[in-house]
Amino acid sequence: MNRTAFLVAVAAALAAPLPLAAQDTAPVASEPVAQAASSALEARADEVVAVINGDIAPEEVFSDSFFADVPPERFRAISQQLTGQFGAAIAVETLDPADGTRARIEIRMEKAIAKGGIAIDPAAENRVSELLFRTFDPIDDSAAKIRADLAALPGTTNALFARLDRLDQPVFAVNADTQLALGSAFKLYVLSALAEAVEAGDLAWDDVVELTEKSFPSGQMQDWPQGAPVTLHTLATMMISISDNTATDQLISVLGKDRVEAEIAASGNADPSRSVPLLTTRELFAMRGVSEEFLAAYRAADDDGQRAMLAAMTEADVSMEQVQATFATETPGAIDIEWFASPRDLAGLLARIAGREDDSARGVMAVQPRLSEERAADWTYAGFKGGSEPGVLNLTWLLRDGQGEYWILTAGWNNPDAGLENAALETIAQRILSLSR
Protein backbone atom coordinates (compact mmCIF):
# COMPACT_ATOMS: atom_id res chain seq x y z
CA MET A 1 0.00 0.00 0.00
CA ASN A 2 0.99 3.59 -0.61
CA ARG A 3 3.82 2.63 -2.92
CA THR A 4 6.26 5.44 -3.69
CA ALA A 5 7.35 4.53 -7.20
CA PHE A 6 5.39 7.35 -8.79
CA LEU A 7 7.09 9.99 -6.64
CA VAL A 8 10.13 9.91 -8.88
CA ALA A 9 8.05 9.82 -12.03
CA VAL A 10 7.67 12.74 -14.35
CA ALA A 11 4.17 13.54 -13.19
CA ALA A 12 4.38 13.25 -9.43
CA ALA A 13 2.56 16.52 -9.65
CA LEU A 14 1.95 17.45 -6.04
CA ALA A 15 5.00 15.88 -4.46
CA ALA A 16 7.37 18.18 -2.65
CA PRO A 17 10.95 18.06 -3.93
CA LEU A 18 12.38 14.64 -3.12
CA PRO A 19 15.86 13.11 -3.48
CA LEU A 20 16.10 12.08 -7.09
CA ALA A 21 18.06 9.46 -8.96
CA ALA A 22 21.43 11.23 -8.97
CA GLN A 23 22.27 14.06 -6.61
CA ASP A 24 26.03 14.42 -7.11
CA THR A 25 26.99 17.93 -8.08
CA ALA A 26 28.90 18.14 -11.35
CA PRO A 27 32.54 19.21 -10.92
CA VAL A 28 33.54 22.74 -11.77
CA ALA A 29 34.73 22.75 -15.38
CA SER A 30 36.66 25.12 -17.57
CA GLU A 31 34.74 27.56 -19.75
CA PRO A 32 34.77 25.45 -22.96
CA VAL A 33 33.46 22.37 -21.12
CA ALA A 34 30.78 24.41 -19.32
CA GLN A 35 29.64 25.82 -22.63
CA ALA A 36 29.35 22.32 -24.11
CA ALA A 37 27.38 21.10 -21.11
CA SER A 38 25.00 24.03 -21.52
CA SER A 39 24.41 23.14 -25.15
CA ALA A 40 23.84 19.50 -24.23
CA LEU A 41 21.38 20.44 -21.51
CA GLU A 42 19.41 22.69 -23.83
CA ALA A 43 19.34 20.01 -26.51
CA ARG A 44 18.12 17.35 -24.11
CA ALA A 45 15.48 19.69 -22.69
CA ASP A 46 14.11 20.24 -26.18
CA GLU A 47 14.09 16.49 -26.73
CA VAL A 48 12.02 16.02 -23.57
CA VAL A 49 9.27 18.04 -25.24
CA ALA A 50 9.35 15.66 -28.19
CA VAL A 51 9.35 12.60 -25.94
CA ILE A 52 6.30 13.83 -24.02
CA ASN A 53 4.49 14.23 -27.34
CA GLY A 54 5.52 10.75 -28.48
CA ASP A 55 7.70 12.04 -31.32
CA ILE A 56 10.92 10.56 -29.91
CA ALA A 57 11.32 7.29 -28.02
CA PRO A 58 12.28 7.74 -24.33
CA GLU A 59 15.15 5.29 -24.85
CA GLU A 60 16.86 7.87 -27.09
CA VAL A 61 16.87 10.59 -24.43
CA PHE A 62 16.89 9.14 -20.89
CA SER A 63 19.60 7.28 -19.01
CA ASP A 64 19.48 3.75 -17.65
CA SER A 65 19.49 5.16 -14.11
CA PHE A 66 16.30 7.10 -14.91
CA PHE A 67 14.65 3.97 -16.30
CA ALA A 68 15.51 2.12 -13.08
CA ASP A 69 12.90 4.33 -11.42
CA VAL A 70 10.61 5.03 -14.37
CA PRO A 71 10.68 2.31 -17.06
CA PRO A 72 10.04 3.43 -20.66
CA GLU A 73 6.50 2.06 -20.80
CA ARG A 74 5.69 3.79 -17.52
CA PHE A 75 7.04 7.05 -18.95
CA ARG A 76 4.94 6.65 -22.09
CA ALA A 77 1.83 6.07 -19.99
CA ILE A 78 2.54 9.14 -17.87
CA SER A 79 3.15 11.25 -20.99
CA GLN A 80 -0.19 10.15 -22.40
CA GLN A 81 -1.88 11.14 -19.14
CA LEU A 82 -0.21 14.55 -19.24
CA THR A 83 -1.04 15.31 -22.85
CA GLY A 84 -4.55 13.99 -22.30
CA GLN A 85 -5.12 16.53 -19.53
CA PHE A 86 -2.92 19.43 -20.60
CA GLY A 87 -2.59 19.04 -24.37
CA ALA A 88 0.61 18.72 -26.34
CA ALA A 89 3.93 19.98 -25.01
CA ILE A 90 4.84 23.06 -27.05
CA ALA A 91 8.31 24.24 -26.03
CA VAL A 92 10.81 24.76 -23.23
CA GLU A 93 9.94 28.15 -21.77
CA THR A 94 12.56 28.33 -19.00
CA LEU A 95 15.86 26.53 -18.40
CA ASP A 96 17.69 28.12 -15.48
CA PRO A 97 20.62 28.02 -15.16
CA ALA A 98 21.39 27.11 -18.72
CA ASP A 99 25.00 26.15 -17.98
CA GLY A 100 25.96 22.89 -16.36
CA THR A 101 24.12 19.63 -15.86
CA ARG A 102 21.16 20.58 -13.67
CA ALA A 103 18.47 23.23 -14.07
CA ARG A 104 15.01 24.44 -13.26
CA ILE A 105 12.77 23.74 -16.23
CA GLU A 106 9.41 25.04 -17.37
CA ILE A 107 7.65 23.52 -20.37
CA ARG A 108 4.66 25.22 -21.95
CA MET A 109 1.86 22.84 -22.80
CA GLU A 110 -1.40 23.75 -24.51
CA LYS A 111 -3.29 24.00 -21.22
CA ALA A 112 -0.61 24.33 -18.52
CA ILE A 113 2.95 25.30 -17.63
CA ALA A 114 4.83 22.27 -16.30
CA LYS A 115 7.44 23.33 -13.73
CA GLY A 116 10.17 21.21 -12.19
CA GLY A 117 13.77 20.13 -12.47
CA ILE A 118 15.97 18.36 -15.01
CA ALA A 119 19.49 16.92 -14.94
CA ILE A 120 21.73 15.23 -17.47
CA ASP A 121 24.57 12.76 -16.90
CA PRO A 122 27.78 13.58 -18.83
CA ALA A 123 29.00 10.03 -18.17
CA ALA A 124 25.98 8.65 -20.02
CA GLU A 125 26.17 10.64 -23.25
CA ASN A 126 24.46 13.57 -21.54
CA ARG A 127 21.23 11.61 -21.32
CA VAL A 128 18.52 12.90 -18.98
CA SER A 129 19.03 11.26 -15.58
CA GLU A 130 16.43 13.23 -13.63
CA LEU A 131 13.12 14.81 -14.55
CA LEU A 132 10.53 15.81 -11.98
CA PHE A 133 7.64 18.15 -12.67
CA ARG A 134 6.53 19.47 -9.30
CA THR A 135 3.64 21.64 -10.43
CA PHE A 136 1.37 22.14 -13.41
CA ASP A 137 -0.05 25.67 -13.56
CA PRO A 138 -3.24 25.42 -15.61
CA ILE A 139 -3.94 27.85 -18.42
CA ASP A 140 -7.60 28.82 -18.77
CA ASP A 141 -8.77 25.90 -16.60
CA SER A 142 -12.20 25.61 -15.00
CA ALA A 143 -14.15 23.45 -12.59
CA ALA A 144 -16.21 22.15 -15.50
CA LYS A 145 -13.11 20.99 -17.38
CA ILE A 146 -11.70 19.33 -14.27
CA ARG A 147 -15.03 17.65 -13.58
CA ALA A 148 -15.07 16.24 -17.11
CA ASP A 149 -11.52 14.88 -16.80
CA LEU A 150 -12.33 13.34 -13.43
CA ALA A 151 -15.43 11.66 -14.86
CA ALA A 152 -13.38 10.28 -17.75
CA LEU A 153 -11.20 8.17 -15.45
CA PRO A 154 -12.26 4.50 -15.56
CA GLY A 155 -14.03 3.39 -12.41
CA THR A 156 -15.50 5.67 -9.73
CA THR A 157 -14.09 8.96 -8.48
CA ASN A 158 -14.90 11.56 -5.84
CA ALA A 159 -13.44 14.89 -4.77
CA LEU A 160 -14.00 17.83 -2.43
CA PHE A 161 -12.25 21.18 -1.99
CA ALA A 162 -13.90 23.31 0.67
CA ARG A 163 -13.48 25.18 3.91
CA LEU A 164 -14.26 22.79 6.73
CA ASP A 165 -16.87 25.13 8.17
CA ARG A 166 -18.46 25.75 4.77
CA LEU A 167 -18.91 22.30 3.28
CA ASP A 168 -22.19 23.44 1.74
CA GLN A 169 -20.23 26.04 -0.29
CA PRO A 170 -17.43 23.97 -1.84
CA VAL A 171 -15.00 25.35 -4.38
CA PHE A 172 -15.20 21.95 -6.06
CA ALA A 173 -17.18 18.81 -5.35
CA VAL A 174 -17.83 15.56 -7.21
CA ASN A 175 -19.60 12.64 -5.53
CA ALA A 176 -18.86 14.20 -2.16
CA ASP A 177 -21.16 11.72 -0.39
CA THR A 178 -19.88 8.64 -2.25
CA GLN A 179 -17.78 6.33 -0.12
CA LEU A 180 -14.73 4.77 -1.75
CA ALA A 181 -11.98 2.49 -0.51
CA LEU A 182 -9.22 4.55 1.12
CA GLY A 183 -6.14 2.38 1.15
CA SER A 184 -3.65 3.77 3.65
CA ALA A 185 -5.57 7.03 4.04
CA PHE A 186 -7.58 5.13 6.68
CA LYS A 187 -4.58 5.71 8.95
CA LEU A 188 -5.96 9.19 9.56
CA TYR A 189 -8.66 7.49 11.64
CA VAL A 190 -5.97 5.78 13.71
CA LEU A 191 -4.16 9.11 14.15
CA SER A 192 -7.36 10.84 15.25
CA ALA A 193 -8.19 8.02 17.67
CA LEU A 194 -4.72 8.38 19.19
CA ALA A 195 -5.18 12.15 19.54
CA GLU A 196 -8.53 11.53 21.25
CA ALA A 197 -6.96 9.03 23.66
CA VAL A 198 -4.23 11.54 24.54
CA GLU A 199 -6.78 14.30 25.05
CA ALA A 200 -8.78 12.00 27.33
CA GLY A 201 -5.68 11.36 29.44
CA ASP A 202 -5.57 7.64 28.67
CA LEU A 203 -2.31 7.83 26.72
CA ALA A 204 0.53 10.29 26.13
CA TRP A 205 2.47 10.98 22.97
CA ASP A 206 5.73 10.14 24.76
CA ASP A 207 4.48 6.83 26.16
CA VAL A 208 6.94 4.05 25.26
CA VAL A 209 5.69 0.65 24.11
CA GLU A 210 7.47 -2.47 22.89
CA LEU A 211 7.19 -3.30 19.21
CA THR A 212 5.20 -6.52 19.02
CA GLU A 213 3.40 -6.28 15.66
CA LYS A 214 4.86 -7.07 12.23
CA SER A 215 3.14 -6.30 8.93
CA PHE A 216 4.34 -5.99 5.35
CA PRO A 217 5.76 -2.94 3.56
CA SER A 218 5.24 -0.10 2.92
CA GLY A 219 7.37 1.06 5.78
CA GLN A 220 10.55 0.19 7.65
CA MET A 221 9.50 -1.00 11.09
CA GLN A 222 8.75 -4.52 9.89
CA ASP A 223 12.56 -4.91 9.90
CA TRP A 224 13.02 -3.51 13.41
CA PRO A 225 13.76 -5.92 16.28
CA GLN A 226 10.73 -7.30 18.06
CA GLY A 227 10.51 -5.74 21.51
CA ALA A 228 12.22 -2.51 20.44
CA PRO A 229 11.05 0.41 22.61
CA VAL A 230 9.28 3.13 20.66
CA THR A 231 7.13 6.13 21.58
CA LEU A 232 3.57 6.54 20.39
CA HIS A 233 4.61 9.78 18.70
CA THR A 234 7.26 7.94 16.69
CA LEU A 235 4.75 5.28 15.68
CA ALA A 236 2.28 7.95 14.56
CA THR A 237 4.95 9.83 12.61
CA MET A 238 6.08 6.68 10.82
CA MET A 239 2.47 5.69 10.13
CA ILE A 240 1.60 8.97 8.44
CA SER A 241 4.87 10.23 6.94
CA ILE A 242 6.02 6.99 5.28
CA SER A 243 2.79 5.00 5.65
CA ASP A 244 4.50 2.40 7.82
CA ASN A 245 2.13 -0.55 8.12
CA THR A 246 3.82 -2.12 11.13
CA ALA A 247 3.62 1.19 13.01
CA THR A 248 -0.08 1.34 12.13
CA ASP A 249 -0.80 -2.14 13.42
CA GLN A 250 1.16 -1.41 16.60
CA LEU A 251 -0.96 1.67 17.27
CA ILE A 252 -4.15 -0.28 16.60
CA SER A 253 -2.92 -2.87 19.12
CA VAL A 254 -2.26 -0.16 21.73
CA LEU A 255 -5.54 1.67 21.13
CA GLY A 256 -7.72 -1.37 20.58
CA LYS A 257 -9.81 -1.80 17.46
CA ASP A 258 -12.92 -0.68 19.32
CA ARG A 259 -11.43 2.76 19.96
CA VAL A 260 -10.58 3.30 16.29
CA GLU A 261 -14.01 2.04 15.26
CA ALA A 262 -15.54 4.50 17.72
CA GLU A 263 -13.53 7.30 16.10
CA ILE A 264 -14.86 6.33 12.67
CA ALA A 265 -18.40 6.71 13.99
CA ALA A 266 -17.71 9.83 16.08
CA SER A 267 -16.23 11.67 13.11
CA GLY A 268 -19.52 11.34 11.25
CA ASN A 269 -18.77 8.52 8.81
CA ALA A 270 -22.08 7.94 7.06
CA ASP A 271 -21.71 4.15 6.92
CA PRO A 272 -19.17 3.01 9.52
CA SER A 273 -20.26 -0.62 9.21
CA ARG A 274 -18.42 -0.82 5.87
CA SER A 275 -15.15 -0.37 7.78
CA VAL A 276 -16.15 -2.53 10.76
CA PRO A 277 -14.67 -4.78 11.95
CA LEU A 278 -11.56 -2.69 11.51
CA LEU A 279 -8.86 -4.53 9.59
CA THR A 280 -5.22 -4.18 10.51
CA THR A 281 -2.91 -3.72 7.54
CA ARG A 282 -1.72 -7.32 7.96
CA GLU A 283 -5.31 -8.52 7.84
CA LEU A 284 -5.89 -6.43 4.71
CA PHE A 285 -2.98 -8.17 3.01
CA ALA A 286 -4.39 -11.52 4.12
CA MET A 287 -7.77 -10.63 2.60
CA ARG A 288 -6.04 -10.34 -0.76
CA GLY A 289 -4.97 -13.97 -0.49
CA VAL A 290 -8.02 -15.86 0.76
CA SER A 291 -10.33 -18.00 -1.35
CA GLU A 292 -13.40 -16.69 -3.14
CA GLU A 293 -15.48 -18.87 -0.83
CA PHE A 294 -13.98 -17.16 2.23
CA LEU A 295 -14.61 -13.73 0.71
CA ALA A 296 -18.21 -14.61 -0.15
CA ALA A 297 -18.86 -15.83 3.39
CA TYR A 298 -17.20 -12.73 4.85
CA ARG A 299 -19.31 -10.40 2.73
CA ALA A 300 -22.48 -12.19 3.79
CA ALA A 301 -21.68 -12.11 7.52
CA ASP A 302 -22.70 -9.34 9.92
CA ASP A 303 -20.11 -7.43 11.95
CA ASP A 304 -19.96 -10.05 14.71
CA GLY A 305 -19.70 -12.84 12.17
CA GLN A 306 -16.88 -11.07 10.40
CA ARG A 307 -15.03 -10.60 13.69
CA ALA A 308 -15.31 -14.32 14.33
CA MET A 309 -13.97 -15.13 10.86
CA LEU A 310 -11.00 -12.82 11.34
CA ALA A 311 -10.23 -14.35 14.71
CA ALA A 312 -10.39 -17.86 13.25
CA MET A 313 -8.36 -17.10 10.11
CA THR A 314 -5.06 -18.98 9.99
CA GLU A 315 -2.06 -18.96 7.69
CA ALA A 316 -3.55 -21.99 5.95
CA ASP A 317 -6.43 -19.78 4.79
CA VAL A 318 -4.09 -17.32 3.07
CA SER A 319 -2.11 -17.82 -0.14
CA MET A 320 0.91 -15.55 0.17
CA GLU A 321 1.65 -16.19 -3.52
CA GLN A 322 -1.73 -14.67 -4.32
CA VAL A 323 -1.07 -11.72 -2.01
CA GLN A 324 2.29 -11.05 -3.65
CA ALA A 325 0.83 -11.43 -7.14
CA THR A 326 -1.88 -8.89 -6.36
CA PHE A 327 0.54 -6.18 -5.32
CA ALA A 328 3.21 -7.07 -7.87
CA THR A 329 0.96 -7.07 -10.93
CA GLU A 330 -1.29 -4.09 -10.10
CA THR A 331 -4.30 -6.41 -10.32
CA PRO A 332 -6.94 -5.23 -7.83
CA GLY A 333 -7.93 -7.67 -5.12
CA ALA A 334 -11.16 -7.59 -3.12
CA ILE A 335 -11.20 -3.80 -2.75
CA ASP A 336 -14.76 -3.94 -1.39
CA ILE A 337 -13.30 -5.33 1.85
CA GLU A 338 -11.15 -2.72 3.58
CA TRP A 339 -11.72 0.88 4.85
CA PHE A 340 -14.20 3.37 3.39
CA ALA A 341 -15.09 7.05 3.54
CA SER A 342 -16.59 9.74 1.36
CA PRO A 343 -15.07 13.20 0.94
CA ARG A 344 -17.66 14.53 3.38
CA ASP A 345 -16.75 11.77 5.86
CA LEU A 346 -13.09 12.75 5.59
CA ALA A 347 -14.02 16.40 6.15
CA GLY A 348 -15.63 15.39 9.44
CA LEU A 349 -12.49 13.51 10.42
CA LEU A 350 -10.17 16.38 9.53
CA ALA A 351 -12.40 18.79 11.45
CA ARG A 352 -11.71 16.74 14.59
CA ILE A 353 -7.96 16.79 13.94
CA ALA A 354 -8.02 20.53 13.17
CA GLY A 355 -10.11 21.33 16.22
CA ARG A 356 -7.88 19.79 18.89
CA GLU A 357 -5.92 22.19 21.08
CA ASP A 358 -2.93 19.86 21.05
CA ASP A 359 -1.34 20.26 17.63
CA SER A 360 0.68 17.02 17.75
CA ALA A 361 -1.53 15.17 15.27
CA ARG A 362 -1.38 18.12 12.87
CA GLY A 363 2.39 18.17 13.25
CA VAL A 364 2.56 14.51 12.29
CA MET A 365 0.47 15.16 9.17
CA ALA A 366 2.78 18.01 8.17
CA VAL A 367 5.98 15.94 8.08
CA GLN A 368 5.32 15.05 4.43
CA PRO A 369 2.83 17.66 3.18
CA ARG A 370 3.16 16.59 -0.47
CA LEU A 371 3.00 20.14 -1.79
CA SER A 372 5.63 21.95 -3.82
CA GLU A 373 7.14 25.07 -2.27
CA GLU A 374 5.12 27.16 -4.70
CA ARG A 375 1.83 25.54 -3.68
CA ALA A 376 2.72 25.47 0.03
CA ALA A 377 3.29 29.23 -0.03
CA ASP A 378 -0.46 29.69 -0.46
CA TRP A 379 -1.14 28.13 2.96
CA THR A 380 0.09 28.62 6.52
CA TYR A 381 -0.23 24.89 7.21
CA ALA A 382 -0.38 21.79 5.05
CA GLY A 383 -0.78 18.18 6.16
CA PHE A 384 -1.25 15.13 3.97
CA LYS A 385 -2.08 11.44 3.97
CA GLY A 386 -2.73 9.34 0.91
CA GLY A 387 -3.47 5.74 0.17
CA SER A 388 -2.55 3.60 -2.81
CA GLU A 389 -2.96 -0.05 -3.69
CA PRO A 390 -4.01 -1.82 -6.90
CA GLY A 391 -7.38 -0.35 -7.87
CA VAL A 392 -7.43 2.18 -5.01
CA LEU A 393 -6.07 5.72 -4.70
CA ASN A 394 -6.83 8.49 -2.22
CA LEU A 395 -5.16 11.89 -1.77
CA THR A 396 -6.22 13.96 1.25
CA TRP A 397 -4.86 17.30 2.50
CA LEU A 398 -5.65 19.38 5.57
CA LEU A 399 -4.82 23.02 4.79
CA ARG A 400 -4.97 26.30 6.72
CA ASP A 401 -5.32 29.64 4.96
CA GLY A 402 -3.97 33.05 5.94
CA GLN A 403 -7.08 33.82 7.99
CA GLY A 404 -6.58 30.69 10.10
CA GLU A 405 -9.43 28.74 8.49
CA TYR A 406 -8.97 25.04 7.76
CA TRP A 407 -9.71 23.49 4.38
CA ILE A 408 -9.94 20.00 2.95
CA LEU A 409 -8.78 18.87 -0.46
CA THR A 410 -9.46 15.21 -1.11
CA ALA A 411 -9.70 13.12 -4.25
CA GLY A 412 -10.41 9.41 -4.52
CA TRP A 413 -10.43 6.84 -7.30
CA ASN A 414 -11.48 3.17 -7.25
CA ASN A 415 -11.50 0.65 -10.07
CA PRO A 416 -12.04 -3.01 -9.15
CA ASP A 417 -11.17 -4.12 -12.68
CA ALA A 418 -7.75 -2.58 -13.34
CA GLY A 419 -4.79 -0.83 -11.79
CA LEU A 420 -4.74 2.97 -11.70
CA GLU A 421 -2.45 5.53 -13.28
CA ASN A 422 -1.78 7.50 -10.10
CA ALA A 423 -0.38 10.51 -11.94
CA ALA A 424 -3.77 11.19 -13.53
CA LEU A 425 -5.45 11.86 -10.19
CA GLU A 426 -2.38 13.68 -8.87
CA THR A 427 -2.55 16.23 -11.67
CA ILE A 428 -6.32 16.61 -11.32
CA ALA A 429 -5.89 17.29 -7.59
CA GLN A 430 -3.36 19.98 -8.38
CA ARG A 431 -5.73 21.59 -10.86
CA ILE A 432 -8.46 21.61 -8.21
CA LEU A 433 -6.07 23.30 -5.79
CA SER A 434 -5.43 26.01 -8.39
CA LEU A 435 -9.10 27.00 -8.62
CA SER A 436 -10.04 30.41 -7.30
CA ARG A 437 -11.26 30.32 -3.71
TrEMBL record:
One of its GO terms (molecular function) is beta-lactamase activity. Residues 1-22 form the signal peptide. Residues 168-357 form the Beta-lactamase class A catalytic domain. It comes from the Bacteria. It holds the Pfam family Beta-lactamase2. It catalyses: a beta-lactam + H2O = a substituted beta-amino acid. Keywords: Signal. The keyword Transferase does not apply. One of its GO terms (biological process) is beta-lactam antibiotic catabolic process. PANTHER family: BETA-LACTAMASE, CONSERVED LIPOPROTEIN LPQF-RELATED. This is Beta-lactamase class A catalytic domain-containing protein. It comes from Erythrobacter litoralis. The lineage of its organism: Bacteria, Pseudomonadati, Pseudomonadota, Alphaproteobacteria, Sphingomonadales.
